[in-house]
Amino acid sequence: MTEKKRVEQHPCYGEVHITTNPRARRIILRARAGFIEVTIPPYTTRKALNDALVKHGDKLLTQCRANSPQTIGPDYRIEREGFAFGLQPTDRGEFHIGYNSCESTLYYPASTTFNEPAMQEWLRRVRTTALRKIAQKHLPQRLAQLATQHGLTFSSVTLRDSHSRWGSCSSHRTISLSIYLQLLPPHLADYVMLHELCHTVEMNHGERFWKLLDSLTNGKAKQLRKELKGYKTDF
Description:
single chain, alpha/beta, Zincin-like, 4-stranded mixed β-sheet, 5 helices
C-alpha cells in the first residue's frame, strides 16, 4: 500500500492536507504555512481524525498564521548551504531562471507586479521547481557516495515533494528522499540518507538497526535524530 494524499476544507480550521501512510502508527498533525498537515494510519476513522483536529486545531491554526509565507519580491532571497534562490530584473520581456551549482536566480521583467495572490502562488511554485532541480542534481549523487563509502547498496532512488517525511526505504531497497533535504545542513541530510541506507539491511527500528546507524555516524545516531526533529525547513 502506498501513500495517499487528499486536501479537504474544514469548516473551522480551513485547508487540511491529509496523507494516509501505511507505516504511520498514530495521527500526526503539523502546522504549515497556510494549512494544517495530517498524517494518518490506514483505516483511521473520520471520528478519530475530527477528534484530533478539535483537540489540537486552535493551536495549530495559530501556528499556521504565524507561518504565513513571506512575500516573494525583488528583495526576496533564501540562502542555505545547499540551496539559494533570489530574483533579479531583466531587460527581456519574459521570466526565466538561471542555475549555478546550488544557486538559482529568477529573472523578471521590470513591469512585474508582485503583490497579486496569483503571482505569489506562481512564484512559490517556481521556487519549489528550482529546489527540485537542484535536489535532483545533488541528492542521488550524495546517496550513492554514502552507499559506496559504507559498503551498502540500494536498487533505485526517487525524489518527492514531501514535507511529512524526509525519506523512506521499500522492501525492494528503493529509497525515496524529500527534495527538502537540500535545505538541511549537510550533516543532517547525510544522517537521513544513512538512516534509509541502513533500512536496506534492517527494515525495522530495532536494536540492530540503531547499532548499524551508530556505527556509520560515530555513535551520534540518536543525537542527530533529536537535532533533525528540531529543524524547520518551511519557506
